[in-house]
Amino acid sequence: MNNTIPGPIAPPLPSSPASRPFGRAEPVRHRLPITFSGSGSEYFRIWIVNLLLTLVTLGLYFPWAKVRRLRYFYGNTSVGDYAFDFHGEPRRMLRGFLLVGAMALLYGLASKVSPISGLIALVIVAALWPALFRASQQFRMANTSWRGLRFRFNGDMAGAYRAMLPLFIPGLMLLTATLFTGPPEDAAPGSDEAATGGLILLAVAGAAMLLVPLFLWMLKKYQHGHYALGQVQTELRTSAGSFYVIALKTIGVSLLAAMAGAVVALVFGGGGALALFSGGGRGKGAAAAAAVIALLIALTVIYIAVILVVQPYVVSRMQNLVWGRTGSSQVRFESDLRFWPLLWLTLKNLLLTIVTLGLYWPFAKVAMARMRLQAVTVVTRQAPDELVGSLRERADDAAGDAAGDLFGIDIGL
Q1: By the 8 A CB rule, do 403 and 142 touch?
Q2: Which residues contact residue 361 at a Cβ distance below 8 angstroms, ignoring those fewer than 6 apart?
Q3: Which of 410, 364, 365, 375 has its CA nearest to residue 69?
Q4: What torsion, rounded to 10 degrees, do the Cα atoms 216, 339, 31, 385 define?
Q5: Are 192 and 293 found together in one domain?
Q6: Which of 164, 142, 143 is nearest to 153 (CA)?
Q7: Burial of 405 (0-12, 13-18, 19+ CB in 10 A)
Q8: Which end of the chain is more exposed for a tag (fewer CB within 10 A), N or C?
Q9: Which residues are within 8 A (CB) of 293 and not within 5 positions of it... i.e. 6 or more apart?
Q10: Is the Cβ–Cβ distance between 138 and 153 less than 8 Å?
């Protein structure tokens, strides 16, 4: 079918550097806002039943609970006034749940036998994880529909292993070092082996920290580069450098949050510890107790400040980067998730969840989903009905087969 439309059409995307966003030079033709109509009270009823049945069945009800949750959130998420739908079957999802549980049990039993066997079991689990991740993506997309069209995930197996390669490097470093030098915990304190083990752990930790942004970029490149609906397939047009920039900014935000938390701890915690010290006697015991209390208060406040600030900062920056650079020649996305509103919502959700002893959690989940989803807009170069018509004509009726026996698993990612 000829998908051209009347009037002037912007030229196709040029082969520009990976960091160039989609469609900045193209005229905006149609904007489809994403809306979320769910409510906390509705989801609370689903959540409490799911929780009780999962506890009563010792976790076996989890796939059914997940399907109910996904159908609720998908059914209340709309693009251009049309809601999504989730078609997954709990019995098929149960296989993925049991498989992941068996892998965790295998690793737990092997690690109790010896550190070496535990590492070998971890390597086996890690070797299977990319394949399971790909199968899970295929299952989720094949069971998601919009306006009667099923999505697809076209990523291949080799791409899944390439995407997760940075995740394996620190583990391979630790495994290789352990096989040649022995487990670090077996070395006598103060010995050369202990010093070598400490250096190995330090090198592994450093490598892991340096590779995290690269891993996230490769993983998102794999995911967002293989979502498909009809003949339209997305790609992620950004570079690894963008993820490292966010990582560096996150470190800066963490330091500022830690400094702010330290000031608060000094003002309140220091005063309380000083009062305790003044009223508790002049002995060393009172001074030591006051110092310990002040230190615990300071560390707690600093930790809470860092977590509260860093989490919404990373979420907002990553969502805007990843979805703002995802698209194709026909469809692209825009994301404008603001840090400060997300920070206040995170703080509000935390406080109300604590005050209600966890019962506010479903309301917090709905509020967070609404803010994140409604920050995204879909931009198309064709009228929505015309675009859907062309997608429907060329859609593969067997797209849902990816949710068959081989890919009928969900590992919760």
Answers
A1: yes
A2: 47, 353
A3: 365
A4: 60
A5: no
A6: 142
A7: exposed
A8: N
A9: 269, 272, 273, 276
A10: yes
Residue 122 CA neighbour count, 13 Å, CB half:
16
- Structurally, the chain folds into a number of domains equal to 2
Per-residue pLDDT of the chain (413 residues; tens, 9 = 90+): 444 344 443 444 444 445 455 554 455 578 999 999 999 999 999 999 999 999 999 989 999 999 999 999 999 999 988 999 999 888 888 887 888 888 888 888 887 877 777 777 877 888 888 988 998 899 899 999 999 899 999 999 999 999 998 888 876 776 666 655 555 555 555 555 556 666 767 777 777 888 999 999 999 999 999 999 888 899 999 999 999 999 999 999 988 888 877 777 666 655 555 555 555 545 556 656 666 666 677 677 777 778 888 999 999 999 999 999 999 988 999 999 999 999 999 999 999 999 999 999 999 999 999 999 999 999 998 888 887 887 776 555 444 444 444 445 665 54
Show which of 283, 310, 337 is a domain's final residue: 310
Q: Rounded CA gap, 221 and 166, in Å?
A: 13
Quote the DSSP letter at residue 13: P
The one-letter amino acid code at 36 reads F
Can you tell me the distance from the alpha carbon of 1 to that of 156, in angstroms, rounded to the nearest whole number? 28
CA–CA separation, 15 and 124 (whole Å): 40
Same domain? 225 vs 284: no
Give the domain extent around 117: 30-237+311-403
Token pair for residue 345?
């919502």
